[in-house]
Amino acid sequence: MEDAPRIPYLSKARCVGCGAGYPIEGLLYDCPLCGGNLDLLYDYGAIAERLERHGRDELNPALLLAPVRVEKGDRLYFEIAASKRSVPAERTAADLGLRSLTLIDDTTLPSGSFKDRASIAVLMRARELGLRTVAGASTGNAGASLACLAARLGMEAVIFAPRAAPAAKLRQIQAHGARLILVDGNYDAAFDLCLEAIAERGWYSRNTAHNPWCAEGKKSVSLSLAGSGDTLDCDVILVPAGDGCILAGVHKGLVDLQRIGWIRELPRLIAVQATGSAAIANAWRAGGTINPVPANTVADSLAVDLPRDGAKALRAIRETNGVALTVDDDEILKAVVDLATREGIFAEPAGAAVIAGLRRAIEEGSVDPGERVVALVTGNGLKDRDAIAPIVGEAPVISNLAELP
Ligand SMILES: *Cc1c(COP(=O)(O)O)cnc(C)c1O
Ligand SMILES: [Zn+2]
Questions:
Q1: Which atom of ligand 1 is nearest to the CA of 106?
Q2: SS3 223
Q3: Quick one: angle between helices 141-153 and 116-128, nearest 10?
Q4: Residue 222 vs residues 14, 132, 217, 238, 399: alpha-carbon distances, Å
Q5: Which residues pair with 274 in a beta bridge?
Q6: What is the C-alpha to C-alpha distance for residues 60 and 64, in angstroms, rounded to an integer?
Q7: Maximum Cα–Cα distance for the chain, whole Å?
Q8: Which ligand is nearest to the CA of 22?
Q9: Sheet arrangement for strand 156-162
Q10: pTM over cut 0.85
Q11: Which residues, at least 6 apart from 373, have a Cβ–Cβ distance to it below 8 Å?
Q12: CA 322 – CA 270 distance, rounded (Å)
């Protein structure tokens, strides 16, 4: 394997709204001109040349297309961004009548969720900028992730979370020694307060979509799918969507692989939203722009009134010929139990939503049973263990064997 590149190939940032370009220096958040989210772009020609010289087998896309400087000692980057986490899900595939299903199991990342992919990129970027304190708003997982990885790197985290976030996620944040601020309001309120606090206190922002290094970190999941050939072993990827940043990141990773000539075609992206929090799916169906909804779903990690990465999420669906679909809370909870019993993976509701989405997609004909499907399982079930209580029921209590049912 090649040495880690010492300097990333980043070249500039570009606004998805107005197209304005910005140099990769200092603090780069949303576009100062129009408020749009930024894309980070690379010197794709130079990377393509390197790929020509060395060939696919010698290179790791997670290093080639890294948005931060990666040294050999950056263990955490290798553990999170440059690792392969795919699991064949044969029993689920058989149940759905599907040819092939691969799960990306991010329930076992350090903090137990996909959010680690964004947090590691943001924390390493903060370190490059010489900033020690990173703040973010979170429904729970982004905060737990930032707290966990900041502890590993000896940095400081400040988390703004809705007071009604699942207790396990809030305790997780506190266990890692982060400053937890509970907001008397929802995630959207926490987001706005956090941005104000950042402007006042000079902290670095790990606010989803607002900081382009979030999506850029999340793209590592797509880079992990790249193999030795110029096609991926998948036709379609199912992605859970709240803010839409995972969707944006998955798409960006695929596009970057295409731009350097690693792959020729992109798989279709299917966004899975909860019926009670479906701003992206609504906009996609109406062929219009994002309007906020009053979000309400058992999948707390998907509960978002106004998706912060909506523009990129819609672009991801459109440009890959994908679709957006919605699943009800009871389908999501059933998927949690199905996934745990068939594959031995206990996911939180948002993490299992893709399984419910896959069932729907097959029924609706947006996935063909002959296709090779990848689905992202994004969060650990221990973070919200009580969600499934209504389905699994209570265990019997006995004091002697005569009572054994
Ligand atoms: C945050 C999160 C999502 C949704 O990601 P977005 O970028 O908000 O669309 C899905 N699953 C889990 C477990 C999450 O924590
Ligand atoms: Zn702009």
A1: 13
A2: helix
A3: 50
A4: 21, 29, 10, 12, 51
A5: 277, 327
A6: 6
A7: 74
A8: 2
A9: 179-183, 156-162, 133-137, 204-205
A10: yes
A11: 93, 98, 100, 101, 102, 234, 235, 236, 237, 238, 358, 367
A12: 5
Say yes or no: CB of residue 115 within 6 Å of ligand 1.
yes
Q: Give the integer Cα–Cα distance in Å for 163 and 184.
A: 6
**Nearest CA, atom 14, ligand 1:** 301
Tell me the two tokens of residue 281. 């799916």
Radius of gyration of the chain (CA): 20
242 lines ligand 1 (CB under 6 A): yes
> CA-CA distance, 246 to 190, in Å (whole number)?
20
Q: What is the pLDDT along the chain (405 residues), one digit of tens a residue?
A: 444 444 689 999 999 999 999 999 889 999 999 999 999 999 999 999 999 999 999 999 999 999 999 999 999 999 999 989 999 999 999 999 999 999 999 999 999 999 999 999 999 999 999 999 999 999 999 999 999 999 999 999 999 999 999 899 999 999 999 999 999 999 989 999 999 999 999 999 999 999 999 999 999 999 999 999 999 999 999 999 999 999 999 999 999 999 999 999 999 999 999 999 999 999 999 998 999 999 999 999 999 999 999 999 999 999 999 999 999 999 999 999 999 999 999 999 999 999 999 999 999 999 999 999 999 999 999 998 889 999 999 999 999 999 999
d(CA 117, CA 129): 19
